[in-house]
Amino acid sequence: MGTETASRRYRGIDTWEDAEILDALLESQLAAVAAVRPALPALAAAAADAAPRLGRGGRLVYAGAGASGRIAAQDGSELFPTFGHPHDRLEYLIAGGTGALTRSVENAEDDADAGRAEAEALRLGADDVVVGVAASGGTPYTRAVLQAASRAGALTIAVASNPGAPIFGDAAHVILAATGEEPIAGSTRLKAGTAQKVVLNLFSTLVMTRLGHVYDGLMVDMQPTNAKLNDRSVRMLRAIVPVDETAARAALAAAGNNVKLAALVASGDSAEDGRRRLAGAGGDLRRALAAIQRQ
Questions:
Q1: What is the mean pLDDT of residues 236-247?
Q2: How does DSSP assign 17-85, residue by residue?
Q3: By its UniProt entry, which SUPFAM superfamilies does this protein fall under (predicted)?
Q4: N or C: which terminus of the chain has fewer CB atoms within 10 Å of its end residue's CB?
Q5: pLDDT, tens digit, 9 for 90 and up, residues 51-66
Q6: DSSP classification of residue 184
């Protein structure tokens, strides 16, 4: 198994100078990012399959154990503040429970019965999307989650770093980031972890873009929860619609600080008309603005 094999490249690393160690570790991180490129077609296919389901109200479920589970949970936790994806349509199945996000829970990753039971408790359906992440690709807990999700009719996606990983037989979509041997054998928080973070970043960002949460590279469904983000909302709105700061702040106030709705208000809609227009456009700001321009 590549991720568990000691590499000759790093033999004697504990005797090297600090600068040599850091240079070698950075080299390994760059290789991990490069390992994601061959997976781009598979990522595109998985996102294309996932977006319509989530657009119909399905839940996005992240599953994993250890470092993989923590990386998966980190990706999911950013989706509400960044894209406005609702908390009640996000679920986390982490071996050992939420306590395992901050400290190791012994043997939890081997508990397939727990993975199966926790997945079944969610009462998954056809519009739900389950992403299972396992560096080795053989984690019993994560495999059991994907197997239960598949039986329930949910869309399943497996992310792993070893070719031919057993988990790939449990999912409809297979994402392989073949990172190979780690600088410290078995420490998959290094190369495999970096690749997992990149894979999940790419997948979730593409899905959120296809769900209409991005306009011209702006996160227009961002949640402005502090002064910095309120100022960012003003800048975003002014980048979309040519208005001064006073008009932008007035439009945001009328729109309840929703940038997409504020863009329609600043373009001449009332807040009520803007809500209807956005709903008619499926939440797609570009389509909604084009409808105003056609009037």
A1: 95
A2: -HHHHHHHHHHHHHHHHHTTGGGHHHHHHHHHHHHHHHHTTPPEEEEE-HHHHHHHHHHHHTHHHHH--
A3: SIS domain (SSF53697)
A4: C
A5: 999 999 999 999 999 9
A6: S
Q: In the prediction, which pLDDT does 183 show?
A: 84
User: Active-site residues: which are they?
Assistant: 78, 109
Per-residue pLDDT band at 100 (split at 50, 70, 90): confident
Asked whether the predicted pLDDT for residue 28 surpasses 60, the reply is: yes
Question: Which among 204, 262, 216, 194 has a CA at the least distance from the CA of 81?
Answer: 204
* Residue at 217 is within a domain: no
SS3 118: helix
Angle at 111 between CA 105 and CA 117, to 5 degrees: 115
In this predicted structure, what is the pLDDT of residue 6? Answer: 72
Taken as a whole, the chain contains a residue count of: 295
User: Which candidate, 117, 77, 122, places its Cα nearest to that of 95?
Assistant: 117
CATH code for the domain of 244: 1.10.8.1080
Q: Which two tokens stand for residue 272?
A: 């009520």
Residue 222 lies in a domain: no
Strand order in the sheet with 90-94: 90-94, 60-64, 129-133, 155-160, 173-176
Q: Which DSSP helix (H) or strand (E) runs through 155?
A: strand 155-160
* Owning domain of residue 259: 227-294
Please enumerate in sequence order all residues whose Cβ is within 8 A of that of 285, keeping only pairs 6 or more positions apart, or say none.
Answer: 212, 215, 220, 240, 260, 263, 264, 278
Distance CA 53, CA 91 (A): 15
CA nearest neighbour of 142 among 166, 126, 172 = 166
Which two structure tokens, joined as six digits, stand for 255? Answer: 């729109």
Q: Same domain, yes or no, for 101 and 170?
A: yes
Position 161 pLDDT exceeds 90: yes
What does pTM read for this prediction? 0.92
